[in-house]
Amino acid sequence: MRRRINSALAAVVAAALLLTLSGCSLARTDEAASGGEDRLIGAFLTADYLDLFDFESYFNDHANQLLGDGDVVIDDTSGYQNRIYARRVETLRTDPEYGDSWTDVEFVFDLEGYGVFAPTYSSGNTTVVGSFSDGEGLDEVYFDYAETGVQIEATLYIPTRGEVPLTAEELDDEQLESNTWYINPVYQTAAGEVYLTGGQGIGFSGAMMGTMTQTLTETHAVTDENGETREQTCSVTIHITGVHAPASVEIQEMSDERGLLRSETYAPDSVPEDIVPGAETDYLVVLTRAEDGAVTREIYDREAEGFRTLAAGQEVCPVLWHGIDWPE
Fold this sequence. Notes:
By secondary structure, the chain is mostly beta strands. The protein has 3 helices and 25 strands.
């Protein structure tokens, strides 16, 4: 992409390009070093914008243009986009019953956020296509593998701030505050390294309800062991959903004949990991009361293996899973 700016702005641009980057360890993009085409394999969600443009290198390479007279033409800047690489972490596991051992492989970004991606890696003599989803903030995580590629989908729940007003004039300062999440693409090199680049944000007011969606899609050519080339597509769909921040969770044990048998109310973060109903319980009713007074009601019969609740959070409502141990 080429952009043209007036020389009157050149000094301002030059000053901006001299800003110092800090925080994460970065590496400059170099397509030749990857040994082949890098592939989109997922996304990493952050609440903060990742400014990964290498201002200093760009300024050093274009100082004459930026500081000279006349118009300045800014060519394609993709070669100046930095990367944040994930660490490959290997953990040896052993089956306590049979004694079999294997190595678990993880790719870890040293960033605050939530990742969902599908890297290909070697574990022993086996090539594995992994399904990584880290952090309790993501729900409804979905991986679909086919010869034509992979589809990835996930949902992040964020708390609304108060009741949604009928008109814009009724919004208070907290509700007007923007809550933005950035969808940063995750790639894998031909050498197996996993990295991310800066992505676009989804922004909305704190009073939002409903869902906003962003999809990343990339198609690349793959040559198989027989020398045949075909196209594969990676599609990553991220949903950001506004929900009522939970204040309490009540679990009611119900009988078809006698109605309510017993109930227990918990703080959102204190619901037991495993629920053991009484022998006479036919079904459970889970009531979630929000901070703004809204109530949701869900019913689980003896066919249900468990249920999920949302914990309270300032930026994200983490998803918690609870198993149901029904008596015989």
